[in-house]
Write a structure and sequence with these properties.
about 425 residues, alpha+beta, nine-stranded mixed beta sheet, 13 helices, 21 strands, globular
Length: about 425
């Protein structure tokens, strides 16, 4: 059962929140962070992307960069840009995109739940990326950025969300990207107890986004437990920062593919090969978006095509085999284009659906890419079914938007 607890959040005073809050560390590069934080010493980028405080080109993994993160984190607290709450709270964090709002509960999630599989993952992690975030957690002795969880819908927790968000938010702002961010503090002891009790009835939590952050946070907590001879299990390092959303609130958007060449085939030969396993319909120059599972959109030679996988080319009883990312990876990318490793092959790139189909068209029309493939989005049910089955999704399957804003609340490990 999921073990969560409230915590004394470290967060900005209300009047500084828009200056402190930032996008997550992994959605932009060092130069973009440098530009976004220009003239703003309060930006969280000085803690999560501290290489921006050095000469351009400085290696973000240099020990002095991690040391700078600690120095800046301490300075933010000394300057009153980040202040720790004086008692334990849960928090509600809501995000608005395109007029739709999703509400999550900010919790301290349990390290043992992660280590023992009660917090389920659907992606593989890379050790180098884990190690980078582990160093960041270790040196700051804090989870600076939250991870993004989902949980099966729960009436009691939904009622808590509804009750708390009927009140005035602590933070309420629109970020430069146009997404709204809203944040409430839960300070009623009875409500806090109810949240803890209700999560304890939920068998599993699911990582939606932030697999490397989850792994790093849990591994550092586990490391601290192993190295503490007086460890008893209630220490703050046994928990890490997460925002948990009811599954029905979340919307996975498409994650699409662009490929540099047709593996020696002409466009006509390529389409003929595709027709072996797909019903191919030419749609012309107007953008065509996939309409259902097993329907794909192909952009090639200035035209859009609908591709519908023929019956018998996939297995509806296999949680991985039924995925459109599997169907397209096997029948198009591997069998026709010779792309077998999506993680490392330089002939393929991936485009989050937030950029729209126009970005696919642009990259093909520019001559940079030969073709683009748009996929129907994975559902939350598919994600949870795969996690429950112990399987791992193929690379680049899910794209969640909006991303969690960093800097609204931080969790210290002591």
């Amino acid at each position: 059962m999921a073990k969560v607890k409230p915590f004394k959040g470290v967060r900005p005073p209300r009047h500084l929140v828009t200056e402190v809050a930032s996008r997550p560390y992994d959605v932009l590069n060092s130069e973009e962070a440098r530009k976004e934080s220009e003239g703003n010493p309060k930006s969280l980028y000085h803690i999560i992307k501290p290489e921006i405080d050095f000469e351009p080109g400085t290696d973000e993994h240099d020990p002095k960069v991690y040391d700078k993160a600690v120095e800046n984190f301490n300075a933010f607290q000394q300057n009153g840009w980040l202040v720790q709450d004086d008692k334990d709270h849960y928090y509600i964090y809501a995000q608005t995109m395109n007029g739709r709002t999703q509400y999550g509960i900010v919790v301290a999630a349990n390290v043992d739940d992660y280590m023992e599989g009660r917090i389920k993952k659907h992606e593989l992690t890379r050790r180098d990326k884990e190690e980078d975030r582990m160093k960041h957690v270790r040196v700051n002795n804090a989870n600076i950025e939250p991870v993004f969880f989902a949980f099966p819908d729960n009436e009691v927790l939904q009622a808590v969300i509804d009750e708390v968000t009927a009140g005035e938010p602590e933070y309420d702002f629109t970020a430069p990207d146009g997404f709204g961010h809203h944040f409430w503090v839960i300070d009623n002891p009875a409500t806090i107890a109810k949240v803890t009790e209700e999560f304890a009835k939920i068998p599993y939590l699911y990582i939606a986004d932030g697999h490397h952050r989850s792994a790093a946070a849990a591994l550092v907590g586990h490391e601290k437990a192993v190295n503490n001879p007086a460890h008893h299990g209630a220490e703050e390092y046994n928990y890490f920062l997460a925002v948990a959303f009811p599954a029905s609130h979340l919307n996975i958007i498409d994650y699409n593919r662009v490929v540099k060449d047709l593996n020696g085939l002409t466009p006509e030969e390529f389409l003929a090969r595709i027709a072996d396993n797909f019903i191919v319909e030419e749609k012309g120059v107007e953008e065509y978006r996939p309409t259902a599972l097993h329907n794909f959109s192909l952009y090639l030679g200035g035209k859009w095509y609908s591709l519908t996988a023929k019956p018998g080319t996939y297995n509806d009883d296999d949680p991985i085999g039924v995925l459109d990312v599997t169907i397209s990876s096997d029948l198009i990318l591997r069998d026709i284009l010779g792309i077998t490793d999506l993680r490392s092959d330089k002939r393929i790139d991936f485009v989050g659906g937030i950029r729209g189909l126009g970005e696919l068209k642009r990259r093909v029309d520019s001559g940079e890419m030969a073709m683009a493939l748009a996929l129907y989005p994975v559902s939350m049910k598919q994600l949870m079914d795969i996690a429950d089955s112990g399987n791992i999704m193929p690379p680049k399957t899910t794209w969640f938007e909006p991303k969690l804003r960093s800097g609204l609340v931080i969790h210290k490990l002591d």
